[in-house]
């Protein structure tokens, strides 16, 4: 934009304005609001806005005051003088102004404001005369010098405070109000002297000099440390710049017919449709915030100043209708006249957001589509989980990852057994672990919440907690957890077992002691809202659930099937784990003997051919074979016996899940984790196991050691298990199809989708698919029940995405496992990233934690390649996502955009995913790639 | 191909043949050779070949004898009868034939042969009359029934043996030769009865029935277990099929003027240019192989049958010239007449391959290009490493991965200290470990070879051993290594410490006891050969080297620079490790305090603004800050002190390497492994360290535990270290540039290429690049030396390849780290894959171990995407590879094809890479994507 031709100053006065409410980019939020209110003929003090471009010009030109700006400012000042009938610098009837920053996005408390600008020794006399209040005028002057001195001239605030305190002390008083006009006049003189000493220059007396300096100070504050920090935390770009608002001062502190306040057009906590706010008479805006006097509720104004109240209520209603959203208002009453100083869309809680959206739609203010777009998906969490009372005082110990939303209070315990014992006894406990493993599951069930020092957003603790809708703070690396001494050390603080702590899983806060919580309530508006959501969304929403209970919870939240049922969690329940361990203990030996025996068979065949069937070596080989046949008998029996014992248990699991998901598809992932995850680590369990499988403790320990892996995430897991141990695949397939046949005979509609995990090459899938189809046919033949089923695969390795065309020739569906795909695409372990990933996000090396928000640039590229290649080989291939991203709004938008059929997420995230999916569909329909969810990020 | 129209039988007789030597696909190797020899007017017994298509037709039609085949066979038989003047089934002058399989690829010992076909009670009399040798005829008949009965009719060989033995026993003799014609006639009768009993049908007497049955038996043998196994091991496709060769019998056992033998036109072990082979008089081919009588050297034939010898020598020379390669010949002399039965290109050792190629080129038989194509790159290993004497008897214990070629013998030791002690004392020891870590390095240096039970082709042991050119067998999972009892258990066998073993790193064999080794010799031919190689190749070949010694070795092998210098290996030498550990011990605390202090600074700024510079909280915050300043002093001093101590040591390392690589580029990778790899694990060292850094043992242990990672491969390593600890990057950059300036002042030409590892996003690279360039400028300013240098990155994560366009805007070169890229693309840990990857390769789930041979389909796709995107952003971007694949011939072909500038590999692989690169260039020039290397695989 050319510096000389573009308009730099936008006037608003007397019902006319150069700008309007849509010009937030140019005028900032505040400036646009003032222009819009003026255009709506609302009582707004006249003033003008200097554009955000001027701020950028200022920086781009090496902090030069933009050329042509001052001339426009002078012209605008003349218009303001005309509108107010006052003169800037006029001794008799002085115009005073406020100078405020105002960026596109609200940055509360981040930018400084100068009030009462235009005062000097001459004009202060005029103000005193006009208001017939010398003390008021002197106090305003004193405040102005102090504020201007600190913010614009950079004099230390402490020095002013010191001078002010000395004056009070000299007079022997403690309250500001004990100082009279003469005292304040003396302080003004002292303050001016202080400024001269500190800056080497006299305090500027010319109001225009004051104005110019203040404008530059606002520009400068854009790159102040506080502003930079705030923008970093809230991901606001640095190049937006701030506008400068210069507005005629109105005074709420001109007596009891004056006042000032803030209000919302509806209750921002509950959404209730009545004016909500508070005000103080005879006060300036900062007094309301400072909390020195207790303000009145806004309703009280109706009694005190009924006319003003009625006018304000009308204005509020008008603004809400005008902006079609709840407004956050600032106003001042000067000698009985209402002035509107600010309006903006109000921030609100999740419950309020839903109620307001539904009410406004029902009131005809907005459409249903707009209502759906009005709620940030993440806000729904507040409707489903307890939250910490926002009014509560908290003693923050540390902050970890917000791994599973909600809040909980309880006593610290360090091991799952204690958690289970005390939890079952009715005590509220919080399980604190360095990290959790499937062995801790029973303790997690019994605990109110889980806290870990290690692991990311998709660590075991996080995933399991989210699945249970239970609060979890993970990867809180500031904690030093000592299982021996049973204490948590955070720097110098120590929390011992049984001390109470409170977790906020929505923000990641770990808080000392008990803090009051607010319980969630599912309202009628929520149900209505979600029904609208489902009208618009196109993506299916399924859930990740491993138990009938979770399945039922998810259906209540609107899940349309299971996208990921992890079969391994079932392996831990009750005494199954013994069978699993027995199988693992003999598995390697069984396979080794089988392989050796197969080699021997080959050798014997070769030797037979070579020797014509007769040789000493042949005899020796045959003898060896006989020995192998003998040796293999026991491990084979133990291995197959364990599987045979597991079969009916797994079948029962699936029966329960199929029943809970009657009518919906259930995607079952075959065994995925490396076998050593099932093995015991403590001496007692090892001893116990040794007895059960007839091995020595040493032998068990050796086997545990032999199964240990350097990088288990990249080890012998997923379909690699099923390939080496096809017997396991066979058992699981049999359990699935027998369960399906059973429930179908009882009238349940069942659609199993068998999912082969961790496929890197189509040949792996082929072999596993072959087993699954064979078993399915066998079961269908035996039971005479026809089962509709699919066989598909996870796409969770880069190679699978890159060769998806080949894989889709076998797979009937793809489910993107974006947790593992993110790990392998980045070469980043979610369990270990806690030591550096927060640093990365904080320093903007990565925009987000890629385990929370799908990395569209890298991982997303592979997802798109996978879908494109997959559908090139199999048109209409069913595609979903079952990584943690399936419940994250931005990622859901991505899934919609790339044409997935469904997303799958933990039960408590299902409503969030539904809303995000609806917003994605609405954004697409409106040709707008962005919607509330995307904008929020 | 239509079944009815295509020719099924190819005749060869009397100098005419339907086929020729190029028709291996159709006629198999043997059939094509017979046709070609016939066309060359060589003395070949007449016969015909049934095409490989017939074999496939047979299987594709459900084992039906192909339509039309029999008619063609009959026609061909008539021609053979005409050529021999004998009649098939003719009583007076019977034609006998052999029926042999013959696939495209030689499958020695894998397919069965039937000799003397055409004999029955009538023709045997004719044979006796013709040869005037009744016993010979009866013995031939006996052998025929036995062979035909076993191979064609499926009668157990043992039963024939039993009957034969009984006959001898009945006569009271032990030797076959003690049986006379009458005895044999009786045995023939018994054999026929045996066949009738076993098969339920009389032995076929009609020669045409015999022929048809034999042809079917050859077809069937293609899917015999032995053939399938052989094809699996040698990666030969199943659908090639076998041809069937029917050839008129000639007899080497018709008396002392008859004989049979095998010969090579040049010595296949040494390449020496003289006929090499052996023969037996009065014998059939199988007798030479069986080794019952000791055969004569071929030279002896000159004395025994000078004319036959001369004829044979001429034929041999003619065949070598004709095929332009060393030939492997089979011949029979029947009553003074030479018959050639087979010719094929001879297998040869590496030294022989080189000598033969060079000699033949110098003799003008082949061009230099052809010579270069004649040596398989992998064969060069045999020229550079000791090998096990092929004549030695071996006692094989187990087979592991051929991790580093060569062979070595030594006494077993289990820990690096003992290895060092005994090795330095002059003893030959072999270090046996479950797996190795950098802490074992000194023991590896002192050992003759390394044997591990765990880890793949790119495990620590494998990589380090290859770098040293030292034999290594890795991942030998059959070994149970017990450090306590100091023994290796393999099944029931036990090898104790100090027992001798021998390793063959070229094949992966672990052998009990000492085995004689053959030492390598660098011949003049090798040098000449490699000079030709360099004429043709276009790819640069660099080396992976971390020390001046390795650099010098690599230059001797022809390396043109260093493609990967790993700086972390330097961290272990001498007392440096103490400094490294000191740095690590305080690193986390230092960074935590720094971060906390930064937060405090922010809090103070906020509170100052909020409170106007005066509040109780502000005072408390300031007090805390002072405490932090105090706390941080010690760890900061220890951290920076350790780096300061390391700087001069690293500088010295680089000086040595730069000097050794004078004139060539040196790519230096900044610190890559996770810090915990440098920490001690044994109590003694931990105690020692505690004293040195002033911490308690418990504190050290806690810190070691805190640094532990679940998946270190995906953890805090690579540039992630440099980002969190920019001080380390700075130190390393300073060491590099100070060293460069130093050597350049001394006249050495130095071109450092600083490589940032494990980049996933361009922002990581940007930050590190910024530090490197700043330090470079500082050093150049200080020293007044201008250094030509580049800053680039490893592409070793899928995300780097996928976003290579962005990365190339910063990186001046790419080096594909295909080890890690393979790990992440497959989601496969090279350290853990040993438990299932061999199963995958054996079962053809994957064609090769992707850590040995680059996976072109998946990983290669990412490499191509990376290069294409990289060069789209930076034309002419320098691209290389530094993974282990850089020295693997097939992978080098790929690197050539996708347009890399160079490959880099361990020093001892440099000649292999040079040859593979030349072959790739020649293949491209000839428009043939395939060359020797690619064909071999």
Rg on CA atoms of chain A, Å:
35 Å
Which band does the percent of strand residues of chain A land in?
Answer: 15-25%
Number of strands of chain A: 32
Helix content of chain A: 40-55%
**Can you summarize the main beta sheet of chain A?**
8 strands, mixed
C-alpha geometry of chain A: elongated
Would you tell me the structural class of the helices and strands of chain A? alpha/beta
In quaternary terms, these chains amount to homodimer
Helix count of chain A?
Answer: 35
Distance linking N and C termini of chain A: 28 Å
Mean pLDDT of chain A: 90
Major sheet strand order of chain A: 13-23-22-15-16-17-18-14
Question: Largest interface, by Cβ-Cβ below 8 angstroms: which chains and how many residues each?
Answer: A-B, 71 and 71 residues
The low-confidence parts of chain A are 930-937
Written overview of the protein:
The structure is a homodimer of 937-residue chains. Chain A is of the alpha/beta class. In chain A, 48% of the residues lie in helices and 16% in strands. Chain A contains 35 helices and 32 strands. In chain A, the strands form 6 sheets. Chain A has an 8-stranded mixed beta sheet with strand order 13-23-22-15-16-17-18-14. An 8-stranded parallel β-barrel of chain A has the order 25-26-27-28-29-30-31-32, surrounded by 6 helices. A 6-stranded antiparallel beta sheet of chain A has the order 2-1-3-6-4-5, with helices on both faces. In chain A, β28 (751-756), α27 and β29 (790-795) form a beta-alpha-beta unit. In chain A, α4 runs antiparallel to α5, α6 runs antiparallel to α7 and α13 (350-362) runs antiparallel to α14 (368-374). Chain A is elongated, with a radius of gyration of 35 Å. The model of chain A is unreliable at 930-937 (pLDDT under 50). At the A-B interface, α6, α9, α21, α25 and α27 of A face α6, α9, α21, α25 and α27 of B.
